[in-house]
Amino acid sequence: MKKAVIMCRVSSEEQAKGYSLDVQFEQLTRYCDKNSISIVKHYREDHSAKDFNRPEFQNFLQFVKKNKGEVDLLLITSWDRFSRNLTDSLVMLRTLEKYGVKVQAVEQPIDMSIPENKAMLAIFLAIPEIDNDRRSIKIKGGIRGSLKAGRWCRIAPLGYKNIRDQNNKPIIVPSSKAHHIKYIFEQIAIGKLQSELREEVYKKGIKISRSNFSKLLRNPIYMGKIIVPKSEDEPLMIIEGIHDAIIPENLYFEVQQMLSDNKKIRKLPVYKSLREELPLRGLLSCSKCGEKLTGSRSKSATGNHYFYYHCNYCSNERYPKDLVNNLFISILDDFTFTKESKEIYQLMVKDLLSVDAKDSKLKHTQLVKTLNDVLERIEKLQDLFIDGKIEHKQYSDTMARYTAQKFSLTDEINNIKKMNSDYLTWLKNGVDALSNLKVHYANAAIRDKQQLISSIFPEKFEFDGKKCRTTRINDVLRYILLINNDLKNKKSGQLSKKIELSTLVESGRVELPSKQATKKLSTRLVPV
What we know:
The chain is of the alpha/beta class. The protein folds into four domains: 3-135, Rossmann fold (3-Layer(aba) Sandwich), CATH 3.40.50; 160-263, Putative Large Serine Recombinase, Chain B, Domain 2 (Hect, E3 ligase catalytic domain fold, Alpha-Beta Complex); 284-334, no CATH class; 339-432. Helices cover 48% and strands 13% of the residues. The protein contains 17 helices and 15 strands. The strands form five sheets. Strands 2-1-3-4 form a four-stranded parallel sheet, with helices on both faces. A four-stranded mixed sheet has the order 9-13-14-15, covered by helices on one side. The longest helix is centred in the last third of the chain and has 48 residues, at 339-386. It starts with a strand and ends in a 27-residue tail after the last strand.
């Protein structure tokens, strides 16, 4: 005698409370009695068949996995009770075959021993999916039609609520929060900052993210209009809505003007892309006004293109890119390192990395222990689910959380292993890069060049057409360079004739401790 599991399904809780499930159950049990089939288990579910992530179906899968060979058939009334997704259905049929289970619809029986009948199976499975797609198109068309008629039929935006009118059609009306929306628009119109206003209304119970706050201010629904999105056949439209406006049109457009004015940038340099020809763009300052120099390409009368650094603020400085770039490279060329300075730097970096290595080893041990605990919990959770001691939803949620922890811990452990294996490589590359900054800079990508420049010159870095000026360079780099015998006796601490370190001149007298300036060593090291 064949053994079967019978499954009844409807798509909503309302149907589940009716007679549909009972009718399916009676039909399936009668079929089993007539064909001498033993019913091992039966399931009832009230979920959509768009996929197989349904609690009762997942319980069925766990049952057949645990009781392999105990079930021969999964009986349903029709193929749309099984699934409304053709691709997923074919994959699931193959999966069930591995467990020795065949699926059969009693109202649409198919003899799968005949190869040609697979085409009929595909038709039976495709029809429900086609029906779903057609229904989706009708729903979208209905929504668009409602929007074109000025009727908002989606979830009401903040400040409105969904109700039904006298004809039982959806409509939105101002809610108890409408006065907050009006207050927001009024305050923006008089120049109040969005960040301050968002914090203010948050204290009044209006919780809204920064991005949604900006969208709210641009939504014409609050002045009684509705946006109909662009489609393949029609452009975007703004329709007069049948709902009541919260704010007047003039207030809405005042806010739009205010938002537009705030977006106008006062001649600030815009860097839409990095240019290899202009590595110092946005990092070099104007010696006249102190603002950042930008850079651009100009076309000469002969048709040739030339790049320049220039100031968009005072318009008093403009230099050919070769003049500036070559001067900067020559400054790097002046940064020479003695054998002693290289050894000191290597010992310093090695000491720092050794401390990190000890910390990483301790962290690695802790991560491995935590990972083992998570793996043990996963195993216990699987046992509880198989024994039927926890429900499917609880199992799925907990398993997802443990799995995320497992992958996160595994990635951290692998990263620590890689860092430890790259220890000597980092040390060598760091010393080599610092020993020959000019070559390292020349071979670096544009983004790495800018990072290197910012690391060497953490303060304002100016160019006046002849030489560069800055208040300070990276403290660690400066002290290592001063180990050089040619420079250690220079009281000014100048490291190149082409750069002026204006505030590094040391005092010729001793100040009282209370008046001595305390300087913090820069923690930014030159990138390697």
